[in-house]
Amino acid sequence: MNIFYKIYLQLKHFLFPGACALCGGSLLGHSEIRCSLCTECRSSIESSEVLSLCNLCGKPLITEIDTCLPCRNNGERSYERLWVIYPYIGKYRKLLTEYKFRKNLYLADFFAEKILEVIAGEGALKDAVIVPVPPRPGKIKENGWDQVEHLVKRMEKIKSCLPVCRCLKRTKSKVQKSLNRKDRIDNLKGKIYLNLKEKIKTVLIIDDVLTTGSTMEVCASVLKDAGAENVYGLCIFYD
To answer: Same structural domain for residues 97 and 185?
Structure first.
């Protein structure tokens, strides 16, 4: 992100803290202003405990046991497990829209806290290295930022954050939106590659939204092929 634009945003947010990203109400106090969420809205979107989650994609199970039907049909995965936090519906969809498309950058602090809460509760991740999903070529130059990269940078500001390695790179590929899972994976094969000499034993891939899981799968397979022993994934939203 352009340094002058970043300074402008920080100054604007300090002088004119604006409104809650969800309800539009006034923000009071440092904790509300820092995350662009009022206390009431923040409480309403805290992750609710579910009885059972799929042990592969992390989505809530309805009638299945251990693994959801889509994961069974999609066959083997290159990652050991994936965690997701919020469904991409209703107020949660608005939350992502405010962050990703309206560039309410301060919501990244809230997302960072939620991700670190998940990490803290999972023993398998205690020695992991965070690897963000790479942006498409030219995205940061065109838009001034990338939502995943900005989120990871905010996580790095927190003392309890795991080490970060930006070792995945991406070359140009077709637009993914109109493709199914198989075609998305084929579209990304060879387009995401590793730029790292040392081997990472345990990896946690971070992305913002899980749809078909194709991006996560390709990233995980690249890391596994490079010698990673355990690869996990975490997405804030699932569609």
So the answer is: yes
